[in-house]
Each structure stands twice: as structure tokens, then as C-alpha cells.
Recover the amino acids of this structure.
């Protein structure tokens, strides 16, 4: 049987935490940062959990 390949785009965008949760980067942090407050930008930097509806598909793309 051939091995299942990990989707490389998904591999770069998502990571799995120690407890098995899927984590993603926060949106809105790439441009127009001058108008956003420091608190808002700081909150963007933390990883966010993938929503339950998307988790199954992301897990499949990661080969888990």
C-alpha cells in the first residue's frame, strides 16, 4: 500500500497541540496594523483553536 501524503499547505498553516487540539494562526495580522490597537494586535499573536466544523477536514489533510 502507498503511504498517505500530508497536505503541505495544511502542514504550514496548522499545528497539533500536546493535548491533540488543532491550532491555527489568527487572521487580520498581516497589514493595516497602524489603525489597530496594541491590545488587539497582541491578542492576534496567540494561536486560536480550529472550529469543530473544520477540525475533521484539517485532521484529514494532516494525515491524522
Amino acid at each position: 500500500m502507498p503511504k498517505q501524503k500530508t497536505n503541505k499547505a495544511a502542514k504550514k498553516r496548522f499545528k497539533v497541540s500536546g493535548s491533540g487540539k488543532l491550532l491555527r494562526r489568527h487572521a487580520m495580522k498581516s497589514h493595516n496594523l497602524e489603525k489597530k490597537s496594541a491590545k488587539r494586535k497582541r491578542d492576534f499573536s496567540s494561536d486560536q483553536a480550529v472550529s469543530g466544523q473544520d477540525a475533521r477536514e484539517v485532521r484529514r489533510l494532516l494525515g491524522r
In short: Residues 56 and 64 are 10 Å apart (CA to CA).
